[in-house]
Amino acid sequence: MITRVISLIIVIILLCPAQEPVIRVNTRLVQVSVLVHDHGGRPVTDLKQDDFTLFDRGKQQRIAFFSMYSEDAVRSTSTARPPNVFSNRGGDDVNIPPSVTIVLMDALNTAADDQQQVRDGVISFLEHMRPEDHVALYGLGHDLRVLHDFTGSQERLLKALAKYRGRVPIELETAQANGPDSTGDDDFDQFIQGMQAQMSDFINNDRALRTYAALEAIADHVSALPGRKNLVWISGGFPFTIGIDSSSPAPTSQPLDPLGATLRERHMFVEEGLRAARAMSNANVAIYPVDARGTRIDRTETAASDARSSKRGIGAVIHTATPIDQNFDTMSQLADRTGGRTFFNTNDFAGAIARAVDDARVTYTLGFYPDGEPDDKFHELRVKVNRSGSDVRYRKGYLDSREAAPAPDTWKAEVQRAMASPISSAEVGLEVTVEPDALKARTYKLRVRLNGPDLPLVQKQDAWTGNVDLQVTQFRPDGTVANAARSPLNITLPADRLRPVLERGLRLTLTMDAVKDVALAQVMVLDEAHGRIGSVRFPLK
Questions:
Q1: What pTM was estimated for this model as a whole?
Q2: What distance in Å separates the CA atoms of residue 389 and residue 386, rounded to the nearest whole number?
């Protein structure tokens, strides 16, 4: 049961330091984080705005915003949030630098034997991380889990990792299982092999879709954080092609063998890969794939692979094409599209993570306003730097989307996905302070602050108005919904109150009576008119 305690027309609270708000109408700033290193891999620190040229679909753009962040010049001071305050932006630290790193341990696509050495490598990195490093730990198994969101605390991250045990990748082991022994009947053996291949393809298909969905969920979760986000994805690879190996013919439209020998799904995951890459790019997330299998010495290198190795990241050695190597080709493409780099054929997982963190130690940010109206198309970006011999990395494009209300069925599905996801949605900034009622058991005060610039406000005469929905959901221990209550929030701001709301946020208080045996709750703010969601989960004690 949710009760509105404070009138929603309008409660303003001074929670944040004042910042000069910017109100724009029909303008959209596109920001591009750019890394520039010299031929020795050292960051270039002396570039000015005039040293950069930016192109959108081949057309040069005027750089309207320019900044350079350097850890050597600015050391972030981390201030821990109180334990009863939960936010969908910034993890447990109030101050987040312009570059943060997510370490994703992929137990869905990594063999059990390799998971332990990955864990050891992550521990080694955490034990030597610097106080100014802001890191989050995520785990991918049957679903995506946030082990700990962004923090500069080595102690908290190590404690969170100590509770994580990984998982036995049953899907991976089943998909890679050897076929049965021969029965002596060639036709029957061929039938059995074909059926087993179909089962393997089905499992691999599910793994790939879940992996791409996890990448999109991560992009959505961190999209509202400013600056560049590095995703270190430690994985044994995943099947981006199904039913195609180095000896298979190209896909054909010929009728399939009724015995199943060629009855194999041929799925390249082109659309899913592009969608994940674009989601990462739009969220300013650079992917850094790390091969969880470590050093490989069981295949013969070729001269051609050696010639390509310099393009594949530090310490990379490319082997003769195999299905697994083809999987890592896709991971390399994701890295290239988002401005990251790959780390293959290395057992130094701690070093790979550290290199990804250090990669953005010096970051240039370029901002421009696209010409014309949004066209809902993906725009290719190109950045040129006036420094010969430099290595320049940045995201390769953005989706120039219109802000429009989604179709009812689409919106319903998006809300359901946000409810079920352990990853917070951050399109609308949201902070929740949870306070147990001292006089009434299982009753909580939820003090909610909405980020002012994210509110859908429009001017009507002498006031600013907007509408969103608030929803509070309670979950049983098994993850099912025990109770969900939604109510509209109608905002009316006198003209002289707009600036304080933009600067300091909009605050309201809700009262929640917890259902029996519920230990987890979630607050959501739903902006259906623009298809945007903010959500925060929190435990109940």
A1: 0.63
A2: 10
